Amino acid sequence: MSFAPALDPDVLSKQSPANHRDWLFIAALVVSAIFWLLAWYGDTLQSMTAKWRESETFAHGFLIVPISAWLVWRQRHVIQTLDPHPNYWMLVPLALLGFGWFLGHLATVAVVQQYCLVTMILFLVATILGNRVVKQIAFPLVFLLFAVPFGEFLLPVLMEHTANFVVFALRLTGIPVYREGLYITVSSGNWSVVEACSGLRYLIASLTLGFLYAYLTYRSLARRATFVVLLLVVSIAANWLRAYMIVMIGHLSSMKFAVGVDHLIYGWLFFGVVMLLLFWMGSFWREDHVVLETTTPPPALVLISRPAWISIVAAAIVSAGVVMVSPLVASYLHRGTYHPPTLQAVPGFGGWQPGSGSLTDWAPRFLNPSTRITQVYVNGSQRVELYIGYYRNQRQSAQLITSLNSLVRSDEKIWGKVGETRRALTLGDDKIQFIETQLTSHATRLLVWHWYWIDGQYTANPYWAKLLQAKSQLLGRGDDGAVIVVSTELNLKAEEVTDRLQDFVKVMLPSIAKSLQSAR
């Protein structure tokens, strides 16, 4: 779908009262249809706005709708010269997006639901008004997608690359540096790459501004695409350079500067200067000043006939019916009574028997499970801690797989992650995929394995786990799932500690599976 540029209102004839009144009614009808859509998907809309309020990274979401409305308003003189013809073929993608929302609902994948909801607005308008009108406002409608809080899954990757660059640049500068995971040590002090250092905020902000700037400044698709790609590359590189400069400022000032609030101030100032320079450079190739051809007569005003009105209203009514289907089906599936699960304690087996106390002061950070158990098991001098977080009737504030759940937060003061890898353990004819993580505090190191249990299957892949969850619900087996975490102190050679966890899992997994099946 192409984005049509705004036309100069001076080349268009003055609007007649009848034409103006017709389009006021049409605008009211379209806005009413959009509100009808949002009302049926209110929980999804609420989850978006909650993210805008809670996270500074996505606070720009409050500005997206006003900006999109302004962009549509700029096109009003062009739109009023077009003859709206409903396009009933647009009901097909509208229904498919509703089904996509339904699958996202079953798997509790908020971002899928949110993208489907916002994209449904585009096809809802296209159904009612037709292709010619939507072509003129395609960009404002597509721009609404920037309101979806998306990108948190990039945090680990961005943080890792930021740490890589900082270490590389420090060594290139001639400064000795020691790195352990996301922790960087130089002679003047210690640094850690946290979420704020990832550059995700800069990336999302630059992407949003870049798309808007490219649309308003350029006309050709090639220039728009080139500018956006260049902006993304520069924003990522600028964040790496910003992180390096902050470490250098702290190092050269003996940790007097760039270690507190000024840390963030320096970062945003640097990013702002880089963006301004890029926009200034981009202005040399601007095309928004191109004079439009006026030798041909301006398009005539269109007075909407009675049959066209009937068709438009009918399209709005049919669209309203289509958008209702998925929420109604979702509500029907969840009409039953919620029964909280009971997770039985996992009994000891073989040489592994329940012990007392806890292994350390660390605990996995999985929010609001329906029930959970934590138990230390002892086998001679060996100790392993088992944690099971069990989820049922999952929702946005209590779901098994979400970016809010983790073994340890990146801004945790005591515990930190220093390494992570995916591994597999062979048990007879089966293999269990799990994620192995090393955690460290000032006094202790831990080796941690964790994986998920969904619909009787084990997996370490969160995306596959979401699909299993959706499949289980479609088959009427509910959305029960659990995370299994085993941990032990890393006080010996890594091979010996790994053998300890392998022995524990091989011996205890049948008992763990029995406890999970009993809860289900």
Structure report:
The chain has three domains: 1-149 and 305-335, no CATH class; 151-299, no CATH class; 353-519. With 520 residues, it is of the alpha+beta class. Strands 4, 5, 6, 7, 8, 9, 10 and 11 form an eight-stranded antiparallel β-sheet that branches. A three-stranded antiparallel β-sheet has the order 1-2-3, with helices on one face. It is flat. The chain is 50% helix and 15% strand. It contains 15 helices and eleven strands. α1 packs antiparallel against α6, α1 runs parallel beside α13 (306-333) and α11 packs antiparallel against α12 (261-282).
Output the keywords.
520 residues, alpha+beta, 3 domains, three-stranded antiparallel β-sheet, 15 helices, 50% helix
Which structural class should the secondary elements be placed in? alpha+beta
Low-confidence stretches: 4-16, 291-298
Q: Span between N and C termini?
A: 47 Å
Question: What's the β-strand tally?
Answer: 11
Can you lay out the helices and strands and say which pair or pack?
Blueprint: H1 17-40, H2 42-54, H3 61-74, H4 76-79, H5 91-106, H6 110-129, H7 131-136, H8 138-143, H9 155-173, E1 178-180, E2 183-186, E3 189-192, H10 200-217, H11 221-252, H12 261-282, H13 306-333, E4 353-354, E5 371-379, E6 382-391, E7 416-427, E8 430-440, E9 445-454, E10 457-459, H14 462-474, E11 481-489, H15 494-519
Helix pairs in contact: 1-6, 1-13, 2-6, 5-6, 5-13, 5-14, 6-13, 9-11, 10-11, 11-12
